[in-house]
Design brief:
The chain is mainly alpha-helical. Helix content is about 75%, strand content about 0%. Helix 5 runs antiparallel to helix 6. The radius of gyration is 17 Å and the shape is elongated.
């Protein structure tokens, strides 16, 4: 019965101490948390660590869920903030870039030229500033709207649109310059 309840209902119940509702939310969104962690940090091990950290901390954070936005929007915000903290702790973007070099493990078997293009795109995204990369991951890979992305990142929708313009401009510049990244 509990799995048929929507996220917001489960979140309200979990914020009031309902352990079953909390467990249902974790089960439903565990893979999403890991996927976002992987895309932001670029490394499967780091994503797994981040996922565990987020899941453990969610128990305490649930009390702060007020229902002002959808639960998934709130959860994205928690995951993005945790990823930012992890990157600060690492004090280097080297680990994020390592994961992009291993993109072939994430790409389904297929055309070698396509894999090369996808690998280039991941590595190019890894070369962007953190705010642009976060925005690109949420809009392009998670297929969130600019409004949803703005709510998650705590910026205006217009800022997300500007950032996406910058992402496109920077990627186009890298492509035109024939920028190559090391494998």
């Amino acid at each position: 019965m509990r799995m048929t309840a929507d996220d917001d209902t489960l979140a309200r119940q979990a914020s009031n101490g309902d352990r079953d509702a909390f467990a249902a939310l974790l089960e439903r969104h565990y893979d999403r948390i890991w996927r976002i962690g992987l895309r932001l940090l670029g490394n499967a091990d780091d994503a797994a660590d981040l996922t565990q950290e987020v899941c453990v901390s969610l128990a305490g954070k649930m009390a702060s869920y007020r229902g002002d936005s959808r639960f998934t929007t709130w959860l994205y915000r928690v995951v993005v903030n945790a990823a930012r903290d992890a990157m600060r702790r690492h004090a280097t973007r080297r680990r994020a870039n390592e994961g992009y070099a291993d993109v072939s493990a994430l790409v389904e078997a297929g055309d070698a030229a396509r894999q090369s293009e996808v690998r280039w795109l991941y590595e190019a995204l890894g070369a962007l500033k953190d705010d642009l990369r976060e925005t690109a991951v949420l809009v392009l890979q998670e297929e969130l709207s600019h409004a949803e992305t703005g709510a998650i990142l705590g910026v205006k929708e217009a800022t997300v649109s500007w950032r996406m313009h910058e992402v496109r401009k920077k990627l186009k510049g890298l492509a035109e310059a024939g920028e190559e990244f090391s494998p």
